[in-house]
Specification:
45% helix; Nitroreductase family protein; 10% strand; globular; binds flavin mononucleotide
Amino acid sequence: MTHPVITQLLQRRSVRQFSGAAVAEADLQLILQAAQQAPTSINGQQVSLIVTRDKARIARIAELAGGQPQVAGADVFITLVMDFNRTAIATELAGATQVIEQSAEGLMAGAVDVGIMLNAIQTAANALGYGSTAIGGIRANPAAMIDLLQLPSKTFPLAGLTLGVPDPSQPGVVKPRVPLASFAMNEHYNQQAVRQGVEQYDQQLRQFWDSIGLREMPSYAQSTANYYQRIYFPTVAENLQQQGFAFKDQ
Ligand SMILES: Cc1cc2nc3c(=O)[nH]c(=O)nc-3n(C[C@H](O)[C@H](O)[C@H](O)COP(=O)(O)O)c2cc1C
């Protein structure tokens, strides 16, 4: 029999329809506690969470994220903040001055930590029966999020996530992925496998949407092109700079 953790991971999907029932406070605390034990680069702990339960504020975040109804329908919204303010305080305590937030390395270390934390929150939430969707849409308007959450210099709202009780009549579907061999490669990168995987998956995703009656959904190639042929969030670099971040090596 497959291990229950593996079963949970194989079944994971974004949940965008909620029943409206509340996330129990004790469960939320457990989720936060479990998530905090995620690994973190240099033990810097450069992630902070802002938990929003106030429905008017959640509605505002939904608006800032580009008008996403699945955000407005969530019981809880958690913003994951890349937090080099905490580490600046620690560095200062040691009598030194932090510069890592001005480097490409710092941005990557912070972004990786945020991603790991996001997954830990979702995994813990799923285990307790809650549904969730990651929300990168908050980077459509980072300045307004920074203002709303009162984020200090050296911090940035990288992503968020919804939490709620899944609507049992619309539990979401497990979305297929590119072929495993074109994703997990042995010993070296295999360009041909990746290309074939893309071509195969483009058709597979089209058939998947058709099979669940969503004929208007774009294929993988079309959907990726729709996003990646332009820079869809146009103020990220500017707002990072305003928060004291830079992208350099020394
Ligand atoms: C960093 C990140 C940002 C995302 N942002 C959004 C978002 O703003 N809105 C949304 O509906 N889904 C968002 N998603 C969810 C993806 O669309 C979803 O994970 C993907 O389509 C795969 O579907 P699945 O999670 O159901 O397997 C995001 C996912 C990630 C990891």
